Amino acid sequence: MSLGDVRHHMLDVGDVTLHVAEQGSGMPVVMCHGFPGLWYSWRHQLPVLAAAGYRAIALDMRGYGRSSRPTAADEYDRRHTVADLVGVLDVLGVDEAVFAGHDFGASLVWDLPQWAPGRVKALMQLSVPRVPVSKRPPSELYAMAAERHFLHTHYFQKPGPADEELGGDPERFLANVFWALSGAYRYLDIWRHPGGENGYLDVLPEAPPLPWPWLSEDEFAYYVSEFQRTGFTGGLNWYRANDHVWKEKQARPDEPVTVPALFVVGDRDPVREMMGADDSMAGLVPGLRAVHVVEGAGHFVQMEAAGEVNDAMLAFLAGL
């Protein structure tokens, strides 16, 4: 199969309309991207899952691509984003699905078994492990760290500066952030730069010319065209919603994830280094069946090592 077989839908799921790309039939597998992603971030998984007998469903998450892009950060909290995923299942006539998440998509999907009980068959999570909820609001922790070095999560909190900087040159930003977070660069080197007056483009490395082994010029052009049209505010609002999500979890603490789960991570993913070892999730995720570490891969593991990630997914799905 190829992406030419993908079916595209615009689904009304309540307060937003979501763009969904799907391929194949069988057990539904819903894929949720992070920042700065699109449904297209799962382009290597859609046809492979479909060919293996699954109904592969990739979303433009709220704030991205062809989906609605609310302007208020509190509209990206769990109440809204969980409702999006439940709404997709309802409109598509799906009772229960396997969910896959990457980056912010993974953070959301880790919460889904608790927030949408009975709708989640299993989880396939990429890059972002399940971690305990912090004792202080995330924005406070970001501000403390930003006193020592540049931290993008702090820089992104204030509406305006990051939206204008990244939206002013989407092509340069996307190339540089994809490269910086890949296995070819050590992302935490940007912490050598102070915060203060620096913007994100001031501290990111300049990417080498395309193509790269895992990203062609045509593939990159799709990202550029979409973000030139939409800007980055929708994606940045996922960062600005972190305090809202934290408050929700004070009233509704996390429960252990007991559904079957797979975790896949690149051994050069900076999130792995920042958030702790991925083999320490047993207490938080008693359903964890396997941790698969991909040598040489960075944060965008499903693109950088598509074949290995696909094999891990298919082996996990076959065991359900």
Task: Please describe the structure with a list of short key phrases separated by commas or semicolons.
globular, 8-stranded mixed β-sheet, AB_hydrolase_1, hydrolase, 39% helix, alpha/beta, hydrolase activity, 320 residues
Description:
This protein has 14 helices and eight strands. By secondary structure, the chain is an alpha/beta fold. The chain has one domain: Rossmann fold (3-Layer(aba) Sandwich), CATH 3.40.50. The protein has an eight-stranded mixed sheet with strand order 1-2-4-3-5-6-7-8, sandwiched between helices.
List the SSEs and their pairings.
Blueprint lengths: L6 E6 L4 E7 L3 E6 L13 H6 L2 E7 L17 H15 L4 E6 L1 H12 L4 E7 L11 H9 L5 H4 L5 H8 L1 H11 L19 H4 L13 H14 L2 H8 L1 H10 L9 E6 L3 H6 L12 E7 L6 H4 L1 H13 L2
Parallel strand pairs: 3-4, 3-5, 5-6, 6-7, 7-8
Antiparallel strand pairs: 1-2, 2-4
Protein name: Alpha/beta hydrolase
GO molecular function: hydrolase activity
Keywords: Hydrolase
Structural class by secondary-structure content: alpha/beta
How far from one another are the termini?
24 Å
Task: Please report which band the strand proportion falls in: under 5%, 5-15%, 15-25%, 25-35%, 35-45% or over 45%.
Answer: 15-25%
The CATH topology label is: Rossmann fold
What best-fitting shape do the alpha-carbon axes yield? Answer: globular
In total, the number of domains comes to 1
CATH superfamily: Alpha/Beta hydrolase fold, catalytic domain
Share in helix: 25-40%
How many distinct helices?
14
Sheet with most strands: 8 strands, mixed
Radius of gyration: 18 Å
| Strand order within the widest beta sheet | 1-2-4-3-5-6-7-8
Uncertain residue segments: none
Instruction: Please report the first level of CATH classification, the CATH class.
Output: Alpha Beta
- Give the strand tally: 8
* Oligomer category: single chain
H-E order: EEEHEHEHEHHHHHHHHEHEHH
Report mean pLDDT, rounded to a whole number: 96
Under the CATH scheme, which architecture would be assigned? 3-Layer(aba) Sandwich
